[in-house]
Amino acid sequence: MTEEEPDWQTVKSELLEGVLKRGAMVARVGDPDLLADVAPGQRPSDLLPQVKSMIVLGGSAPRVGEWNSPRAEVLETVGTSDRMAAIGSALARQIEERLGYYAMNVPTSTDQDDKPFLDFTAAAVAAGAGSPSLAGPVLHPEHGFVYLTVILTSLPLPFDGPIEQPACPAPSCVEMYDQRGVTPCTDVCNIDDGGCLGGQIQDGLVIGRRYDANRCRDRVYHYWVPGYQAVLEKVLSEPDVERRKMMLYGSYFTRTMWSITYSNVSQGQCFECMRVCPVGAENRMLK
User: Fold this and answer.
1) In whole angstroms, what is the distance from residue 108 CA to residue 99 CA?
2) What integer pLDDT is reported at residue 262 of this predicted model?
3) Residues paired with 110 in a beta bridge
4) 38 and 141, same structural domain?
5) The total number of structural domains that make up the chain
6) Distances from the Cα of 239 to the Cαs of 173, 244, 251, in angstroms?
7) Sign of dihedral through CA atoms 138, 196, 208, 186?
8) Which of 169, 202, 215, 253 has its CA 20 to 30 A from that of 180?
9) Does residue 240 sit within a domain?
10) How far is the C-alpha of 60 from the C-alpha of 58, rounded, in Å?
11) How many other CB atoms sit within 10 Å of the CB of residue 155?
12) Which of 133, 130, 128, 126 is nearest to 169 (CA)?
């Protein structure tokens, strides 16, 4: 007598309903084979050889009050990505302990050479959790910017395909580009004026995206690990004793140490391109 095959659609629905109740705003399942062309080492099978499904969760963007604060430092110091990682870890544990299948919550930190463990953008697009944007982050059509977490599993769950209509560019961005040659994100951080972003829109599609990764990194990671490394390098090469003490005990290095030790969430994220993005903007407006 053979064991009856589970109803995988029901299993999927129960799992996704559970994470949505725990705080995820987006929950989709993608085909890991769609990531076959990403860089070696960042494919699902490189992390979990038994992988058959990718569960992509999105949520925990900054609160509305934080988006609307005139102090950019607020968004720089209120990281919320760890909330999605916690939901992903709980789901992976549920799959292994209750269902008996392999599951891995992919680390959101970086691997060797500061590269991500997985191409999160490709995973989100494959699952339909959003689409790439001119600014860079994946945008969900309804919620806009969300933090992502990906659970790889040997569960053979039914797949959700990519979304049919990309979230970027939004209609208002197309209109603005036609009038001024920029979009809200490329206007606030224009690569030709010391910023990080550039690109064109043609027939309603983003083409020729330009992105200065090094310049963006310098602005995004002010106080996290890269900031610590930059200050430490200068301290080690500084011959003046008093100046070394000033560098080590000053506010910048102190804040850097705070962010990478007991805080673990202060990563100096810029957010200005997302603050002006119209996708999901209605969710950032309250009384």
Assistant:
1) 25
2) 55
3) 116
4) yes
5) 2
6) 51, 8, 21
7) positive
8) 215
9) yes
10) 7
11) 23
12) 133
> What is the span of the domain harbouring residue 135?
8-153
| Per-residue model confidence as pLDDT tens digits over 190-227 | 999 999 999 999 999 999 899 998 888 777 666 567 67
Strands 205-211 and 197-202, sheet pairing: antiparallel
Q: Are residues 12 and 148 in the same domain?
A: yes
Do 31 and 149 fall within a single domain? yes
Burial of 116 (0-12, 13-18, 19+ CB in 10 A): middle
Burial class (CB in 10 A: 0-12, 13-18, 19+), 262: exposed
- Which residue carries 């999927």 as its tokens? 12
Q: Which two tokens stand for residue 133?
A: 């944007």
Strand segments (E) across the chain: 26-30, 53-59, 103-105, 139-140, 144-145, 147-153, 197-202, 205-211
Query: Is residue 198 situated within a structural domain?
Result: no
Structure tokens at 246: 């000033």
Residues in the chain predicted with pLDDT less than 70, given as ranges, are: 1-3, 76-79, 220-224, 226, 259-269
What letter represents residue 15's amino acid? L
- Phi then psi dihedrals of residue 215, to 5 deg: -65, -40
* Residue 39 sits in the same domain as residue 148: yes
Q: What pTM value is reported for the model? A: 0.84
Last residue of a domain, one of 153, 182, 202: 153
Specify the residue for token string 């999605």.
84
φ, ψ of residue 82 to 5 degrees: the values are -65, -25
Is the omega angle on the peptide bond into residue 169 within 30 degrees of 0, that is, cis?
yes
The reply to whether 238 and 135 lie within a common domain is no
Counts for the chain of helices (H) and strands (E), in that order: 13, 8
Is residue 193 assigned to a domain? no
174 located within any domain: no
